[in-house]
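quick one
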Amino acid sequence: MGSAVMDILADAWYIGASTNEIGDRPLARRVCNEPLVFFRGASGSIVALEDRCPHRKAPLSFGSVTNGEIACGYHGLRLNEQGICTWAPLQGNEPPRLAARKYPTVERFGFVFVWMGVTPPADTSGLPSWEFMEQGGWTDFRGYHYVRGHYQLVCDNLLDLTHLPFVHAETLGRMVDASLYLSPQKTWVEGDAVHTHRDAGSTSLRPMDPPEVAAGLPEGALIGRSQNSQFYSPSFVTVGFEGWREDQPENRFATHYVVNGVTPETSTSCHYFWAVVHRANPAAAEFYRNYHALTIKAFDEDQRMIEAQQARMLDDPAGGKLVDLSGDLASRHARGVVRRNLARPL
Ligand code: FES
Ligand SMILES: [Fe+2]
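structure w/ fe (ii) ion:
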């Protein structure tokens, strides 16, 4: 698999957790090969520390959180949200000058973003542009998949939707007409982003189209569609869908977005966080419940394929070299952007 195994950029924001995963107990999660522990600190913000006690290297995540400090489960050393030791019970003296490494974090869009680089981030401009998640009238459902595969294999999957009619023949594949993928796709690079746009013309209304698209139209009616993907280095992918009614081609509107953050765990595993962002429509609660279940099933299908693909790459005597087809242009650019950022001097 060559250098792709190692294409993990440290100087970047990654999704470390969903905000709602951080409760009363410490959360252990490995990111970019580093064991991290997440907890809510005394100031109320979510803290990420190296999950190694500075005393004897026990995982801090085996301990507990009290008043915004984490207590190691081995000999009770307490660390505050800066990672600094504030108390060493039963040691009979001042707290030792010990600290665990602290990683910068930002809470946004219901996720905890963590910065893995040694050089602190200049700002939060490396976060994905998911402002539409914060618009009034929009909501989302979301999920997490642990994937035993290199994170770029998940990005490839998201950037090349020609797999839909095959991997997802019984799930998401039913939402789109395969002919969509024969219409030309524009792909372009802009700084750290790769964009794609595909106008699909008109295809028939599907039972799984969001109700806002289908409103007032009979089954089988023609709907114009387009699909836009944005990749942001190193591993955020936003897929936006637009629709318009045949009789109102000038009236394009966003139907929904699928946002994805793919966080490397090791060079052969990743944490895949995703959310489907759609208009809030209480009348369609059941539709979106079904859509949520269908999405989980579909992403299970991706996971199965990607894990099997990774296993085949690892035991390939030919080195698991990948070949690009026309549908892989965006992935090729995405990998290029990450490689360029890896090569950038600090
Ligand atoms: S290893 Fe953590 S207190 Fe001893
Ligand atoms: Fe998929």
